[in-house]
Amino acid sequence: MAQEKKLVEAITPMNEDFAQWYTDVIKKADLVEYSSVKGCMIIRPYGYAIWENIQKNLDERFKETGHENVYMPMFIPESLLQKEKDHVEGFAPEVAWVTHGGQEKLTERLCVRPTSETLFCEHFANIVHSYRDLPKLYNQWCSVVRWEKTTRPFLRTAEFLWQEGHTVHATAEEAQEETIRMLNVYADFCEQVLAIPVIKGKKTDKEKFAGAKETYTIESMMHDGKALQSGTSHNFGDGFARAFGIQYTDKNNELQYVHETSWGMSTRIIGAIIMVHGDDSGLVLPPRIAPVQLVIIPIAQHKEGVLEKAEELRDRLSKVVRVKMDDSDKNPGWKFSEYEMRGVPIRLEVGPKDIEKNQVVLVRRDNREKIFVPMDELEDRVLRLLDEVHEGMLEKARNMRDSKTYTAVTPEEFEKIAAEKSGFIKAMWCGDRACEDMIKEKTGVTSRCMPFEQEKISDSCVCCGKPADKMVIWGKAY
Amino acid sequence: MAQEKKLVEAITPMNEDFAQWYTDVIKKADLVEYSSVKGCMIIRPYGYAIWENIQKNLDERFKETGHENVYMPMFIPESLLQKEKDHVEGFAPEVAWVTHGGQEKLTERLCVRPTSETLFCEHFANIVHSYRDLPKLYNQWCSVVRWEKTTRPFLRTAEFLWQEGHTVHATAEEAQEETIRMLNVYADFCEQVLAIPVIKGKKTDKEKFAGAKETYTIESMMHDGKALQSGTSHNFGDGFARAFGIQYTDKNNELQYVHETSWGMSTRIIGAIIMVHGDDSGLVLPPRIAPVQLVIIPIAQHKEGVLEKAEELRDRLSKVVRVKMDDSDKNPGWKFSEYEMRGVPIRLEVGPKDIEKNQVVLVRRDNREKIFVPMDELEDRVLRLLDEVHEGMLEKARNMRDSKTYTAVTPEEFEKIAAEKSGFIKAMWCGDRACEDMIKEKTGVTSRCMPFEQEKISDSCVCCGKPADKMVIWGKAY
């Protein structure tokens, strides 16, 4: 128990220093390691296994909705990046430039892709000619680079992994449908797979993606009350199509511009998993993406029959869940702490007394509930329990978010909440950029989104007092 | 049939111009598209689906042999690249250099990884301390960049996709075992999944990887008689460990250097699939990685009951194979050509007469054999047929290779074969680098490997005539 205590003490408590707690968890749970490459992280096996499970689930959802994977070059010639004015203004300040290939200076600089709209546009212009070629529903899994000054593993790194969907459609309506469809895929994925409740909404013009007509977002709340933009879906209208000349001949033999979308989710979402579900003992992983869903810890494993039984259970359970047995010579207390730190959803303990009673003990990571289960009901009970853990985590996260969500009608109320609390603020907005800017300047809080589910908090803008019919969710963001 | 003919004629016959045939196939089968990024290719959905199937199968094999996936930064600081002398000499001339991040000039140049030994070494030095930390068996899926002057899709591009395994071990024996184990994984994968026969062997010092103690390779033969290095596995000994200071404390509490390996396979292997199996009608895909294993073409689909039957068959077959039905309004002849071009292993034809007889027609892509199958035996027959196609393709490729493999005892014989034939030449070598250089200079042929399966062609070196006990496979290489 001394060892166990030491391990737990090694994490800074959340309430003491949330940022340090985060850093402690990602290191102690072996998710990442730092490297000598400034601003870049090494994703270690346990962290990467989480990403693989995320990829697998998302990729299936993309394919079910008719998307195909492709791979574009990682470099973008400077002239290509410059073709869409808003887009280059948004990204040029934060890209890495390749100037030399081998011993030679390049005639044109190449940037390492910060996102691939320009490459996809060029490709679409080459392959789309007729209405018969539409829609094209593409996705790409890759890494992208954005030169960030201050970085934090998963949340903001110079290089990160993501997927970027890029689609072209014959009509504006189809593009809008696609934009919302993929936002819904992200929202459903977050709630049903990651147990993270999200708010779906539209970004204000100030916060939208460089070059987009409209940006939609899912916003989640971290344990410290800050918001994390967890996935975005953009409708480009025909802006990029006009800049890149992506046209098709319609059924009446007339030339039309295509309508385009893009949407992305990144390794950032692993930061959300950590900060939504984690606690002072470490990670708490949602069962549907946990690399290990259940860990078996034999108790008094030197006693006759214990290891054999543990192995038998592992073999049985490995047919239905991702299971690991730890029969190393560390003491059980140390192992308990270790797998709590790693956020394994269920711990199974089996010792001589359990074997005598033909039962095992299951312990939930999320709420530490202990459950005694007859051995012959094990598979069924474990499968059900994983679902219960998922539901429990989702509800807990929703309650946490709701308890940190406030409403403000007057500027004074807004400023007081922004100064004293950390969380979401619901307040009305007139739609004027000046008000948005002023709120940010005065309180440090930004508009997260205009939620699809609107509420009427009042009739007037929380900033200028003019008539307002948009409710905005405001918050400090990662 | 006119359309069909046109489509087929659009490919240059192999015997007329093999390079042009290759280019025609990859374009007509929609595998790749060119982009404005010099030397880089766009991998289109059909090409990427092949890569996904390769990845899935290889990844399972890596995990079964105990390996874990990780992700390293894509950049390598210049000073880190320079730590191992041979390695930097081999790679520095062909890397892309990032010199600016955003608006600022970097204090140290970063190269875009051409391979990640140096990053893994730095990481291993950080995380390996005791014999308890060993072995570390890591793999990474990523893209790498090598600045090539002349490029060809899949075979040689500035950027390509690959996996790179990197492992560290306590002893030289374990590292050697790992090196050979992974070579065998590659060889088995090529033969059992891609139907490509390979020759396993060791590279000469001249041809080994920059920084390796020993490089092992699998070599396959393309339809034009040229060799393609299809996968390599390197034993680094403790060379990198000494350069990067990767040490561990052994059981006797003494400091030891680790022993390291790396091994890689890339999208290049798709080039091998095309050039080993393809024919003048286009691609011939090995069934185990074909994105579509069977395509259903309804005949006289406007007639009553045909489409319904085709749909019923699709639904049945989709439970056991990757199936597609094409009920577009193109004529069957056009569809036949289209799916031949795309290399779909089996075509299923079903029309009114077949329905009457309660049968379907299966047509093999590899040898065009037609098989009539009773509808109620369909699933079994298709599954068996896919295996038969695989075996047939493997045997055909082996026969092709053997028919283009020659032996030479004297320099004159060697030169004559090299001048008149295209294929592998088996000949003895004394082990002297000078002879290897001279053979290359005189004939343009290089040593592919010293095969594990040695044969005694003669007693003396084919170049200098001195005693020789090594048989080398020589050939022109991609």
TrEMBL record, chains A, B:
Protein EC: 6.1.1.15
ATP-binding listed as a keyword: yes
Keyword ATP-binding: yes
Domain Aminoacyl-transfer RNA synthetases class-II family profile residues, every copy: 44-286
One GO cellular component, as annotated: aminoacyl-tRNA synthetase multienzyme complex
Keywords per UniProt: Aminoacyl-tRNA synthetase, ATP-binding, Cytoplasm, Ligase, Nucleotide-binding, Protein biosynthesis
Swiss-Prot/TrEMBL GO biological process terms: prolyl-tRNA aminoacylation
Record's catalysed reaction(s): tRNA(Pro) + L-proline + ATP = L-prolyl-tRNA(Pro) + AMP + diphosphate
Subcellular location: Cytoplasm
Any GO molecular function: proline-tRNA ligase activity
A Pfam cross-reference name: ProRS-C_1
This protein's domain notes: Consists of three domains: the N-terminal catalytic domain, the anticodon-binding domain and the C-terminal extension.
Function statement: Catalyzes the attachment of proline to tRNA(Pro) in a two-step reaction: proline is first activated by ATP to form Pro-AMP and then transferred to the acceptor end of tRNA(Pro).
Family of the protein in this entry: Belongs to the class-II aminoacyl-tRNA synthetase family. ProS type 3 subfamily.
Subunit structure: Homodimer.
Protein name (database record): Proline--tRNA ligase
The species this protein was found in: Clostridium thermosuccinogenes
